[in-house]
Amino acid sequence: MSTEWITLSTPDGAMRAYVARPLNATRAVIVLQEAFGVNAHIQDVTRRLAGRGFLAIAPDLFHRSAVGEFGYDQHAEAVATIGSIGAPQIVADIGAVLDYLRDGAALDADRCAVIGFCFGGRAAFTAATAYPALGAAVVFYGGGIAAGPHALLDRVAQIEAPLLLHVGDSDPVIPREQIDALDAALRQANLTYRQHVYEQAGHAFACDARPAQFRRAAAELAWERTFAFLDEHVCARALL
Fold first, then answer.
1. Which of 60, 93, 110, 171 is catalytic?
2. Is 112 designated active site?
3. Which domain holds residue 6?
4. What's the CATH number where 222 sits?
């Protein structure tokens, strides 16, 4: 595996992206950051996915601001920054990554998945509404999908990619009524999706860089389900 930072062009200027590249990758995963940027944890997740054979790329969705990442103790600053990033910016940034994967790695969108955490979960869901050819989308505790200034329930009918969603039953960012509202919207749209709710798990339960939030059993199960989902919807297609 090789790793590097590359620079992509977007309508709003240059965007850095962290790339972990295995040999002879025939599928890709776009890794979308938490509210804290493409930090050491997101880079580690990107390498984990490359270890499974994916060309994994984590674009810096904060490229429009002067801050590349925040510390975990800078929650207020992080929330303010992600609040300024709406669907148009996310769609443009994911489009730049998909262009790179198509032109630079000969990987069309149906061989690519998006996976996002926290703010990146909302971003992954947003990408699925805009790019129906995506092979799959995975959302880890994506706040702001069912409610808030960037809510996306009115765009659910635009999704064609299979969806996998993970959320904790004790997540204050995503209360039960929002979990149920999203489930109802996805079911009504007759989408291919699975939403798993994890007991005694809160926000960021899969982030092993945050011991207070990390729940090992839930995280391991969520990753097991994620890899099986990617194998089913992206890896199998890459063999065709």
1. 171
2. no
3. 2-238
4. 3.40.50.1820
